Amino acid sequence: MTEKHRKVVLYAGLCLLFFHFVFVGWYVSPFSRKHYPAFVLTYVSSFFHQNWLLFAPPPSENYYLFAFYAQGDSLKKTEILGPLISAHERNRLAGHEAILTSFVNHIHYFEKTTTQRYPLNGPVKGDRNFEMLRHSLAGYLKYLYGKDARLQRCVLYVAPLNEKGRVYFD
Description:
The protein is α+β, with helices and mostly antiparallel strands. Helices cover about 50% and strands about 20% of the residues. The protein is built from six helices and four strands, in the order αααββαααββ. The protein has helices spanning about 5-30, 40-50, 50-55, 80-90, 95-115, 130-145, and strands at about 60-70, 75-80, 150-160, 165-170. It starts with a helix and ends with a strand.
């Protein structure tokens, strides 16, 4: 292959690589959410589209994680997962995925291993997975609201799509 052919192949490869990163960047950019041209979607989905049914079943329950915490002299309540999911959906590159995954994994492992699932749910005592969830929640509250935020109570509400909900708390 001559020097001229090598340069053509090199430049063609660099152009393809450039357009690949531009299209993928455009697709994941929080500024262009659902406003990208059809050719970007066609290109990105041909390489990265996943049928999530192959990897994980569709969600069968919704989780709500409430934290009651003391800050100064007042007691406050906040819902944790809803705002995190919304923030992650608005900007997937902002770094919310790790903490969101951590909370959902703690909840999942707790739900799958707890002895309180049926027929009674309520106060949780001595469950390692719930304690890990509680510990992560306490650290996250300190990150959000400062070092004086102290977790008082953790309430997990699991709302299955086809049956009555379950409530766990400490």
